[in-house]
Design a protein that fits this description.
The chain is α/β, with parallel strands linked by helices. The chain folds into 2 domains: 258 residues, Ribonuclease Z/Hydroxyacylglutathione hydrolase-like (Metallo-beta-lactamase, Chain A, 4-Layer Sandwich), CATH 3.60.15; 33 residues. It contains 9 helices and 13 strands. The strands form 3 sheets. A 6-stranded mixed β-sheet has the order 1-2-3-4-5-6, covered by helices on one side.
Length: 312
């Protein structure tokens, strides 16, 4: 992918996209480590005195926007996102709850994920409605809702490069082995955080009409070559949401002010078992502490030397 540098940040990707007079950072990875790894990549590619024209966020989830505020402050550059992502990046609204009931490794891990978007600070700006990206001539920001309401993907028409964000993945995130080896394959967007599956399918179908020659997603290794366009078309035709889940049949709803509706929870036996185990562990710890306190407070429990007296 000419002029596009992938920066892996643990399990998520950020991208340095070259422009005529610099570069633009697309997504920023996790808080802290994302900033560190991006700084290293920028210095290796452009030198120590170069800063981007701006930061573009495909959406505001913690793993994509976590280091945006720190880097924007350090570089004194704006952050751009779709207007429907702004309430989450401004902490005016939370995202819909995760849906671990879709099943799989990522779904179980999602129980630990934060619901709040990553606060972007005062440098946050809305992307233009015509898809123009400041500082990136030849690229367009395409609305690809589904994973989040204001999700965008970036496309360079001249050579068919698609930065898909979390509109889809290029790895299987539901397998613990695949999370390590990352075999290239087109897969659904990260399932436990996707809150409108019908919109997600329409977005994938739209991306397939672009006939991309390279796909670089938020999760997984890039896919490049003459077979990519047909692979995406096949994936779009055969796309199916998870068999079950909170948002499979009814989406969350949001507007420019943020979240306005979530469908009711569905049965979550694994979550119930985990909560029961947690309550049991807390109760056992409290009971042990109370017993120790009782022994400590009872003057009959110890003799004058501090030892327990022997039973008669």
């Amino acid at each position: 992918m000419t002029g596009v540098v992938r920066v892996p940040v643990l399990f998520v990707n950020a991208y340095l996209v070259e422009a005529n007079d610099g570069f633009v950072l697309v997504d920023s990875g996790l808080r802290g480590i994302g900033a560190t790894l991006i700084r290293v990549a920028v210095q290796a590619r452009f030198g120590s005195d170069v800063r981007p024209r701006g930061i573009v966020l495909t959406h505001g989830h913690f793993d994509h926007a976590g280091s945006a505020r720190a880097l924007a402050k350090e570089w004194d550059v704006p952050i751009y996102a779709h207007r429907l992502e702004l309430p989450y990046l401004r902490r005016q609204s939370e995202y819909p709850p995760e849906d671990p009931t879709v099943g799989g490794t990522l779904a179980n891990l999602s129980r630990l994920f934060p619901r709040a978007g990553s606060y972007a600070g005062p440098r946050l700006r809305p992307l233009a409605t015509d898809g123009e990206i400041p500082g990136l001539r030849g690229w367009r920001a395409l609305p690809t809702p589904g994973h989040t309401r204001g999700h965008v993907s970036l496309f360079r028409e001249s050579d068919g490069v698609l930065l898909a964000g979390d509109a889809l993945a290029t790895m299987d995130q539901e397998s613990p082995l695949e999370l390590l080896v990352q075999h290239r394959q087109l897969r659904q967007p990260p399932a436990p955080l996707t809150t409108d599956w019908q919109a997600a399918q329409r977005s994938i179908e739209h991306l397939a009409t672009l006939r991309p020659q390279a796909i670089a997603a938020g999760h997984g290794l890039p896919m490049v070559g003459p077979d990519v366009a047909e692979a995406l078309s096949t994936f779009a035709r055969n796309f199916a949401p998870p068999a079950h889940g909170r948002y499979v049949n009814q989406p969350a709803r949001a507007d420019e002010a943020g979240l306005i509706y979530v469908p009711p929870p569905v049965p979550d036996p694994i979550g119930l078992a985990l909560r029961a185990a947690g309550v049991g562990a807390v109760a056992a710890a409290l009971l042990m502490a109370l017993r120790r306190r009782s022994d400590h407070d009872d003057p009959r429990a110890f003799d004058a030397t501090g030892r327990r007296p022997r039973s008669s």
